[in-house]
Amino acid sequence: MAADIRALKELAALFPEGSRLFAVGGYCRDRLLGVTPRDLDICSELGVEDVKKLISTSDFEISEKSMRLGTARIYRRGFSAEYTAFRTDSYPEASGAHRPEKVTFTGDMRADALRRDLTVNAVYFDPLTETYTDFTGGMEDIEAGVLRAVRDPDAVFGEDGLRVLRLVRFAAELGFSLHPETFAAARRNARLVLDVAKERVFAELDKIFVADTAYPELGVSRGHVRGLGLMKELGLVDILLPELAALDGLEQPAKYHIYDAYRHSEQAYAFSPPEVRWAALLHDVGKRPAFDAQGNMHGHETLGESMTLARTTALGMPRRRAERTARLVRWHMTDLKGDMSENKLRVFLAGHADIADELIALKRADARATRGEDVGELRIERVWREMKEDGTPLSVADLPVRGEDAEAVGLVGREIGEALGALLREAVMNPLLRDREKALAFLEKRAKKQETER
Length: 454
Known about the structure:
Blueprint: H1 2-12, E1 22-24, H2 26-33, E2 41-44, H3 48-55, E3 61-66, E4 71-76, E5 79-85, E6 87-90, E7 102-105, H4 109-114, E8 123-126, E9 131-134, H5 138-144, E10 146-147, H6 153-159, H7 162-174, E11 177-178, H8 180-188, H9 198-208, H10 223-234, H11 236-240, H12 242-245, H13 261-271, H14 277-282, H15 287-294, H16 300-314, H17 319-330, H18 342-351, H19 356-371, H20 379-389, H21 403-408, H22 414-429, H23 436-453
Parallel strand pairs: 2-5, 10-11
Antiparallel strand pairs: 1-2, 1-8, 3-4, 4-5, 6-7, 8-9
């Protein structure tokens, strides 16, 4: 923070007295909370072109982002800030479109404050005097831990549907409560989130699901759980995750579960580490269609794989990550009863080595959420640990032989890749084949068989 202040003071000193530079938003909120600010937004009444001229002889540089919105990035080594000129915004009525229809630049800081979403994000900080300006009661709300709209909350959320998700994120990350009128308006306007670009929606959801990691200094240990709970209260789960919402009230066999399918999914998500929370939340979405079609939940993991891929893709999750999340859902039932043969389990883990650690984390969360109790080391977890400790080859590159060795014993074309693949599967189960001589003997035997079949 000290480095930011020094650079910010140097930048602010370049601005004339009548057009002071201010920090605004999250930087001020975080500073008042005594936590390390994660980003820096700055503003003044000057347009981007005027700022360009002001800093032209300094070591600060500027990169225009959107001239229409009067925004730019100002940076130098070790410093970066988003600059916006004071403005007022006009949005199409109740469109929730996130992007203003008309922008009017102004010299009135109060008007700029009232275009923002929440009072806690509408506090201004003068880096030269180290004083704050607050038109909306944001400093009092920060001290009280309350999230409140800067003006009529229906107007605030009606202008930009993303603001409902931002409200949830801030509550989840900071542990703040929601002002009753702000909460009620957010619920009334929740469906406007559908008017927002899916990538922006996904970015907010992704932050909500790891909200407990945002501010370690604040000790909000279950922020992600609070975020999901608020989403449900506001109707956002029904709107954005309908497959998950459909699990609400779906009873599960009491022999294995103490929760219905929704509560179980919620608990698995609560117990899981950040990297698998999407998969934990969606791992059982296939149970509703499975039950509706056949009266039981058999095969729900296969249905869940395609449903998870479709939903995460529709929400804007990058394709590769969506596919990985869907794979975790597909395989979360692996060795559920602990009766898969160990050799088969070893082959499975080698074939899914890229997701094995995440899959085990998901399975642990799933197991804990089944009965509400912690679980010891899972069998699949033990086998995977032993495989990593005993040097089990997890790819062809880990074998003691190469393609040229296969070619040298007489294998050709596709036979080489097939032979190495077969050797890998056997070596996963048989440690003797991790020896080069034994591996070469395997290839030679394979070559003789192939020669006979040609």
